[in-house]
Amino acid sequence: MDTTATRAWLPTGVGLHYVDQGPPVAEETVVLVHGWPDSAYSHHRVLAELPAEHRAVTMDLRGFGDSDRPPGGYAIDDLAADVAALVETVGLAGVTLVGHSMGSFVARRVATQRPELVRRLVLIGTAVSADNAVLREVADLVRDLPDPVPADFTREFAASTLHLPVPEEFFDTLVDESRKAPTRVWRAALAGLLEVDDAAELERIAAPTLVLGGEQDALFTIAEQTAVAAAIPRARLTLYPETGHCPNWERPARVAADISAFLRET
C-alpha cells in the first residue's frame, strides 16, 4: 500500500508532519489522532490492517514526533484547531476521525467545534474527563523530569498502559518516538489534557460515534469509558476483554476491522 510522509504548513502557525496512506481520492478517509506522549507511529499497526481502498492520514500533533515544537498552544482546543486545519489544508472532506487517549479528547472537540468536517467519530481509550488520580500522579512525576525525558521513564509509562504484549520492535520505536518531544511539551500537553472540561458538550456530537476500549485499561475504568458512550447521542460501545489502554497497539486487526465495519454500517 502506498504510504507517504510529508509536512503541511497550517494557518494555525505550525508545520505538522503527517503520514498519508492509500488512494488520494477515496470514498472513505480515516484521520487518526495519537495520544500522549505519542506520535503518528502510534497508529502504525492499525494502518497496516485498514482496507486498501480507504485513505488514511495520521499526524504528529504539535510538539510531538517530527512536527514543530512552538513554545505554547498545547491546550486540547489548540490541538483540535491544528487537526481541523490539517483536514482542510490537505483537502479532505467528511472524514472518519479516530482519536486515541488524549487524541480522543482532541477528536471530539473537532466534532463539536467543526462538525462539518467529521462524518463519523471513533474514540479509543477515552473518558468523560482525564482528570483522575492516575493521571494526576503521572503529572506529578513528569514535573521533575530532566530533558530529554529518560528512556527508562518513557518505557515504563508505555508499558504500564498495556495489558497484552506488543512486538518488541514496535514498542522500541514507540519509546523512541515519544522521546522526540521535549519535556516541556510532555508537561504542557498533559496539563492541557487534565484541564479540559467538555462533558457538557458531548451531547452536541451529531456524528455517528463508536467508542472502543479495553476492560483492563489502567488509566480509565470501564465505568469512565461507558460514561462517554452514554453521554454521546446514539454512540456505540465496544470494550475488548483482556485489553489495556491501547487497543490500537494490542489488537490492531480487531480495531481496524471494527472501524471498517462501522464505516460500512453508517
UniProtKB/TrEMBL annotation:
AB hydrolase-1 domain: residues covered: 29-252
Gene Ontology biological process terms, A to Z: acylglycerol catabolic process
One MF term in the entry's GO annotations: monoacylglycerol lipase activity
Superkingdom of source: Bacteria
Pfam families registered for this protein in UniProt: Abhydrolase_1
Gene Ontology, cellular component aspect: membrane
InterPro entries in the record: AB_hydrolase_1, AB_hydrolase_fold, AB_hydrolase_sf
PANTHER family: HYDROLASE, PUTATIVE (AFU_ORTHOLOGUE AFUA_2G14860)-RELATED, MONOACYLGLYCEROL LIPASE
Protein name: Pimeloyl-ACP methyl ester carboxylesterase
